[in-house]
Structures are given as C-alpha cells and as structure tokens.
C-alpha cells in the first residue's frame, strides 16, 4: 500500500512553511485519501541541504507519493542538483504529486493499467523538468535583481545590510556549545541552517588572532 507524504517548505524562518497545509489536506480529502506523514522545514529550495526532504525520502517505501503545493517547493535547484534529487526519488519510485501540475494528480490513489501509468509517468517527468527549470530561472532572476538593487544602494550610500538577530544568534551559539545538533537548533530557534552557518563562521573569525 502506498503512503502519501506531504512536504512543506519555506525559504526563511520569517516565512510560514505551514501555509499550504490546508490546501494539501483539502486535495487529499477530495480524493478520500489520508496524508500519512508531514515533513516541514525552512530551507532554501536552491540547496540540497534539506534534512526533512531527505528524511521523507528515507522514510518512504517503493511507490509512495510525495505531495507538494508547487514544484518550486520541491526544487529551485541547478541542473546537477536536480538530477541528484530525481535519482533519489526514482530509486524508490516515489511519485511526485504537485497541486500546480494537474497531470500528476492521477498518481495520488489512482489505479491505472501498466501502459497508461508508464505513459503518465513519462509525461510527468518531462513536465517536472520544465517546471524545475522555470523555478530555477525565477530564483536566479530574483537574486540578480536583488543584487542589482544592493549594488545601486551601495553606490548611493544607502545600503546598511540586513541587521542580525543578535539575541537569536547568541542562543544558537549557546546551543552549539552544548553540542545540540543543527536540526534541533533549527526546531528550537526557528533559524535556518544558513543562519546557523553564519553564526559558526562568525565565531571562527572572532577566534582568529588579530
């Protein structure tokens, strides 16, 4: 029996990764399906460093369904990393169902003959690739425009950078000293792994002799 495993992602701790939960629940309920497990994290879709996504893959059995709101929740990856993720998914024959990809909906609970299923899987693989490329382009375009804005602000003397959350950084540092794992720190503080990395790097720089 296949299980439906829902994946929710937001890029930063300031965003609500749970935002699409109701939509996924409604999608499943309309098809008399039950979501067996939820995987939620605040990590960039442009990186493979996503513990909850890979926990989902590790938990999944052959033929399980990965349910997402949109393909860009699953990937804003570059081509090489997207290929790596696809290999991990195909290794367990995990079927991706995305609400913004109607042709994928049939994989959620539908019983199809072998030929029809193979054809549908092939179509969905192609469309997933297309949407993943579009999501990556959107990501790189936004990053480029953001950097252009920063460069202009710097030239005009208006750029001050994003202020650090010093209190949260201090909490992260304390937890690191206690040997708490990055995953547990993310859960406890709401920080992303990139924020923890910034704290680690800042401490390394402070520790260097003048």
Strand arrangement in the largest pleated sheet: 2-1-3-4
Poorly predicted ranges: none
Mean pLDDT, all residues: 86
Q: What about the largest sheet?
A: 4 strands, parallel
The number of domains is: 2
CATH class of the largest domain: Alpha Beta
Radius of gyration: 20 Å
Order of helices and strands: EHEHEHHEHHHH
Strand content: 5-15%
- Structural class assignment: alpha/beta
> In percent, how helical is the residue content?
40-55%
Please give the alpha-carbon distance between the first and last residues.
62 Å
Architecture of the largest domain, according to CATH? 3-Layer(aba) Sandwich
Q: What is the assigned CATH homologous superfamily of the largest domain?
A: Resolvase, N-terminal catalytic domain
Number of strands: 4
Shape, principal axes of CA atoms: globular
> Which fold does the CATH topology of the largest domain refer to?
Rossmann fold
Count of DSSP H/I helices: 8
Describe the overall structure.
This protein is of the alpha/beta class and 210 residues long. The protein has two domains: 4-136, Rossmann fold, CATH 3.40.50.1390; 166-207. 54% of the residues lie in helices and 11% in strands. It has eight helices and four strands, in the order βαβαβααβαααα. The protein has a four-stranded parallel sheet, with helices on both faces. The termini are far apart.
